[in-house]
Automatic annotation (TrEMBL):
Domain of life of the native organism: Bacteria
Signal peptide coordinates: none
Cross-referenced Pfam families: CSD
Domain CSD, first and last residues per copy: 2-69
Protein name: Cold-shock protein
Protein source organism: Roseibium aestuarii
InterPro entries registered for this protein in UniProt: Ca-reg_mRNA-binding_domain, Cold_shock_CspA, CSD, CSD_CS, CSP_DNA-bd, NA-bd_OB-fold
Chief place where the protein resides: cytoplasm
Organismal lineage: Bacteria, Pseudomonadati, Pseudomonadota, Alphaproteobacteria, Hyphomicrobiales
Keywords: Cytoplasm, Phosphoprotein
Length: 70
């Protein structure tokens, strides 16, 4: 299910950050590769984005995928 949110934090040196969902749920992890796969520029804090929360391959919870600028 596609959600909207805001980039809360992004560490460019380490290549990851978190998105705060617009519905007020728990922050969702996002990795730089999700932006690369979507063909999006390097994220800036405060940017509006839509995403799909998918299970992390390592079993650590949810992570953002299928990113689009909102």
């Amino acid at each position: 299910m596609r959600q909207n949110g805001t980039i809360k934090f992004f560490n460019h040196d380490r290549g990851f950050g978190f998105i705060t969902p617009a519905d007020g749920g728990k922050d969702v992890f996002v990795h730089i590769t999700a932006f690369e796969q979507a063909g999006l520029p390097t994220p800036e804090e405060g940017a509006k984005i839509s995403f799909v929360a998918e299970d992390d391959r390592r079993g650590r919870g949810k992570q953002a995928a299928q990113l689009e600028l909102a």
